[in-house]
Amino acid sequence: MKKETYKDFVYLKIPKDEYEKLLEIGAKKGTKTKVISIDDLTRWEINYRLDIENKQNSAIEAHRRKKAKKDIQIYQTLENYFTGLFKSELEHINAYKLSKLAKVNFRTAKRFWDDYNLDHWIKEFEKRGSEALKEFKIKELAESFVFGR
């Protein structure tokens, strides 16, 4: 068949058991084809669309959870750093040092740094300590704590 010939056909995703029933009905009548009702076509299309939407929503949910876990991991490292557990080792923190302390990829730490404007927040953490950390957690990371736990 030529490539242009395929443009004249409609391809459907039909559940296997229903396709086998269509073949059985066709075999009884002596043909391999059956007229398919518009209701069946609509039902199959809706089921197919719902399957695709569920897959997409599941992928989005998985991405949110993964991002939330990384955000929480980085936040806990910031909390440990500014409450004194790591402060004796390092005097100034940047995205690279944050990635090493949190044991995450540099790109993840850099994205976290840029998304949450840590240049501003670091100054607040140094001035106010744990109060600023709590404020950062509530204002910036509320969604991550909902998805991550």
Percent in strands: under 5%
- How many β-strand runs? 0
Shape: rod-shaped
Structural class: mainly alpha
What's the alpha carbon Rg, rounded to whole Å?
Answer: 28 Å
How many strands, what sense, and barrel or not for the largest sheet?
Answer: none
**What proportion of the residues is helical, as a percent range?**
over 70%
The chain-level mean pLDDT equals 81
What is the number of helical segments per DSSP (H or I, 4+ residues)? 7
Distance between the termini: 55 Å
Low-confidence stretches: none
Topology order in helix (H) and strand (E) letters: HHHHHHH
Would you mind describing this structure in some detail?
- With 149 residues, this protein is an all-alpha fold.
- The protein is built from seven helices and no strands.
- Helix 2 crosses helix 7 and helix 5 packs antiparallel against helix 6.
- It is rod-shaped.
- The two termini are 55 Å apart.
- The mean pLDDT is 81.
What is the secondary structure topology, with strand pairs?
Elements: H1 16-29, H2 38-82, H3 95-102, H4 106-115, H5 118-128, H6 130-139, H7 142-148
Helix pairs in contact: 2-3, 2-7, 3-4, 5-6
